[in-house]
Amino acid sequence: DIQMTQSPASLSASLGETVTIECRASEDIYNGLAWYQQKPGKSPQLLIYNANSLHTGVPSRFSGSGSGTQYSLKINSLQSEDVASYFCQQYYNYPLTFGSGTKLEIK
Amino acid sequence: EVQLVETGGGLVQPGRSLKLSCVASGFTFSSYWMYWIRQAPGKGLEWVSSINTDGGSTYYPDSVKGRFTISRDNAENTVYLQMNSLRSEDTATYYCAKDAGGFDYWGQGVMVTVSS
Questions:
Q1: Is the peptide bond before A59 cis (omega within 30 degrees of 0)?
Q2: Could you give phi then psi for residue B60, rounded to 5 degrees?
Q3: Phi and psi of B64, rounded to 5°?
Q4: In chain B, whose CA is at the least distance from the CA of A86?
Q5: Could you give the 3-state DSSP secondary structure of residue A30?
Q6: Measured on CA atoms in the order A84, B111, B105, A32, is the torsion positive or negative?
Q7: Distance, CA of B33 to CA of B86 (rounded, Å)
Q8: Per-residue pLDDT tens for A27-37?
Q9: What residues of chain B, 38 to 97, have a C-beta less than 8 Å from chain A?
Q10: Residues B11-59: pLDDT tens digits?
């Protein structure tokens, strides 16, 4: 099974700051990676797919990068509505696996 | 507008069965793989099952293999999850989701509680 190690587990940042969340796969996943945002009490929403492609309607302050086993999600100009949990997920191979999540708060 | 609406959740005793349904609209259902994903209270996300476009191929993690069965009815735009021999660790919100390389649309989720 491919393990997804996500860091940090929690993050506190100020409005307008840039934050980065990392995800490391236990083996090469060839950019088969998605990022999701989940606000409290809501369903997850797709932000990024194929490691660096922005899903329709997602603000351009979100971006994804990486390759091989190392991937990251960057949020520029942090806004109050970005308070949420963020999850990475690999879909390169079964079983499909998620990172453990990052809880983002505003400082 | 893509919509996925799950139903069928509730409180069930350990060892019993439950069947979830997810009705899809706003896209050509028969052209997409569909998935079930769950989230235990306060926990992360766990993939539960996948089904291909004609229902001929299905996939499960070891945690539910042999107990859960995913199926679909393309005429009714519905995907199902039959859950047998339920355990307390199956307690979670269950989401259906549509395939896009990742999951591009999710339902609102349905709560399943396994408890005596």
A1: no
A2: -145, 150
A3: -125, -5
A4: B44
A5: coil
A6: positive
A7: 25
A8: 999 999 999 99
A9: 44-47, 50, 59, 61-62, 95
A10: 999 999 999 999 999 999 999 999 999 999 999 999 999 999 999 999 9
